[in-house]
Amino acid sequence: MRRVALLILLLLAGCSVAGGGDEEGKTTVTFRLWDDQVATAYQQSFAAFEKAHPDIKVTVQLVPWADYWTKLPADIAAGTAADIFWTNTSNFGLYADNNQLLPVDVDSGWTPSVVELYTRNGKLWGVPQLWDSIALFYNKDLVSNAGVDPATLAWDPAAPTDTLRAAARKLTVDSAGKTVGQAGFNPGKIQVYGLNAAFDQQGIMWDFVGSNGGTWQSGDTFTFADQPKTVQALQYVVDLINKEHVAPPAADTNTNGDKTLQLFTQGKLALFQSGPYQLKSVQEGAGFAWGLAPMLKGPAGRVGVVHGVAAVASAKTAHPDATREVLNWIGTADGVKPIAEGGYAFPGVTAAQPAFVDYWKKQGVDLQPFLDSAAGTTFPAPVGPRVGAGGTAYTPILQQVFLGQVGVAEGLRKAQDAGNEAMKG
């Protein structure tokens, strides 16, 4: 999801930061998330909720992604967490296993894949709010000028070349107008890159692993270093950066998760594989014609990450009845309608999904590649009670791999060991 600037928005003034504040005889329920754009939709949603529930007020806390996962555990431990808060699959398991969340009843109208992601030990712990899959954004002028059809691109690490590498070489241009392979091409002065190969786990890394038939974990344990197909896929991605020179250097992308998005909207990147969470940013930032194509195809086909965000309720809420009323509301089509109609994200309530598709259709953007990706073979995002800590531990090691400072096989082994050790608690 988008990383946003630090800001805390309250829908109504005079409310407590955590739940439990009452004002004028009304019960205050607090709701925390990390996305500023979707926060706008929730403001609209809760305004409608309050009209139907005049005895309940809902306040929204917006905490930036960079601070979210350090602030949340501290607040939960102190008993000052919001009554309801967003979570992802990397972090909810720890709270569910420690009885810090309220279980919720399954609704048949919710996106099944997201329900599955947040089901643990036989119970559902969150109300699906939005989901995303992976597709390929492309700059129409750049691919047309290079004679590249983005819908047909495939990669094969066992072959000396493939359609993806060939296309990326045509699309990568230096300051003198030379492409990769042409005499005089200067990899130190690239003006336009072919593809956003980078340490982007959701948009790139796990999708290449899955599309090569690799895996990332078994149960709650990382096993990626033990999987030859996983090692092979990561070697391919790293080579696109350091050997083929068709992707931005990791020195830039490791330190700025939005770097490839920025390059794409600036017209300096031809192919940008990512999720629908980038649609608004591309729409607002790109001054050129762009489109969507199916995600890149590997030896195992097109296998992409389908991830989802859920809203969970704190077991320590001082107002469980009011909190459940709000949870019930955001589990309805009316409750998530502003998210869909505003074009912010695929909603977790299936009945509201057409509104999101229609919004982008009116903008001239066909979301079918995202729908096809979600309906096809998918790759699971990591789950487990301490998988977030494991990911934090292995990240700097894998960043060294992408920089070319550590070999892929060696780096994956070190990263796996560090991640699994961190998950022991």
UniProtKB/TrEMBL annotation:
CDD domains, alphabetized: PBP2_TMBP_like
Annotated protein name in UniProt: ABC transporter substrate-binding protein
Species per Swiss-Prot/TrEMBL record: Actinoplanes awajinensis subsp. mycoplanecinus
Subcellular location: Cell envelope
Record family assignment: Belongs to the bacterial solute-binding protein 1 family.
Record SUPFAM superfamilies: Periplasmic binding protein-like II
Keyword entries, A-Z: Signal, Transport
Predominant location category: other
InterPro entries listed in its UniProt record: Bact_solute-bd_prot1, SBP
PANTHER family: ARABINOSE-BINDING PROTEIN-RELATED, SN-GLYCEROL-3-PHOSPHATE-BINDING PERIPLASMIC PROTEIN UGPB
Stretch forming the signal peptide: 1-20
Listed Pfam families: SBP_bac_1
Record's GO cellular component terms: cell envelope
